[in-house]
Amino acid sequence: MKTIYVLHEFGCPSHVNALRYLASQKKVKICFCEFDLLEQLRKRPFSFRRFLHNIFYLFFLIFVSSRKIVLGIAPVNPALKLLLKLYNQHELFYHTSYTSWDFKTLAHQPNCAQDFKTWNFFITNKAKHIFAVSEKTKKELCANFQINPSKISIVNHSYKQEIQTSSTLPQRNTYICVGELSYRKGINELLDIFSAHPELSLTLVGKGNLQNKVKEFSQKFRNIHYKGNISNWNNLENNYKKNSFLILNSHKTDQWEELFGMVLIEGMACGCIPLATNHSGPMEVITDGNDGLLCKEGEIETIIKKAQLLSLNTLTAMRKAAIRTGAQYSAKNKSFSWEPIFK
Question: What does the pLDDT average to over 282-308?
Answer without folding.
Answer: 97
